[in-house]
# Entry
Amino acid sequence: MLKVESINVSYDTIQVLHDVSFHVDEGEIVTLIGANGAGKTTTMHTVSGLIRPKSGKVEFLGKDLVRTAPDRIVRMGLSQVPEGRRVFANLTVLENLEMGAFTKRDGKNAERLATVFRSFPRLEERKGQPAGTLSGGEQQMLAIGRALMAAPRLLLLDEPSMGLSPLLVKEIFSIVKQINANGTTVLLVEQNARMALSIAHRAYVLETGKVVASGDAKELAESEEVRKAYLGL
# Structure
C-alpha cells in the first residue's frame, strides 16, 4: 500500500533523514519508534506531502506522492492526525468533524459521522461544545475522528499518546486497534514504544534519521537491545 524508498530530507544544511526505507501493507498497523528527535515526525510529514524529500521515492497505492499536493494526497485516501492534535479550538466538535470531510462530495458524511460517534461516544455528547474546551484526551479523539471523516485507506497517527494519562493512553490505543480491525490501515509514530509495539504488526526503529532495526513488532519488543534502549528494561 505504502512504499518509502531511500528518502533523504534536510532542513537547510542539516540532513534529518538518511536513506529511510519502509513499507506498509494493506490491513497492517506499522509503527515507527525512536527517541525524540529521531526523525519520526519528519518521516510522517514527508509521506503526507508537507515536506519534499531531497531524494528518494514515496508511493501510495502505486502512485507517486513526492510531486503530489497534500490536499490531493488526502483525496487519494491518506489522512494524518498531527502531533499535538491541532483541533480548531474556536469551532465546535461537530464543525471540526465536518472540516475533516472537506474532500468528500458523495453524500455519505452523515454515515461517516455516525461511525465516528460510535467509536467516540463522548464526541457526540459534546458535539456542540467548542473544541478548545475539551480535555486533552477528548481533543485526541476529535483529531482522530476528524481524520476518519475523510474515509482514509491509510491513517497516519503522530504521537497520539502525547500528554495523556496512562488510562487515556490505553483507551486511545484500544480505539486504534478497533479502527484497524474495521479495515483502516495504520502507520503509527509513537515515543511510547511499549504501547506501540503491543498493538502493531510490524515496526521500524529510527535513530538519528536512520532505520536501525525492523521486523515483527512482538519480536522487536522481546529484543534485548530494543528493551534496553526504548522500553526501559
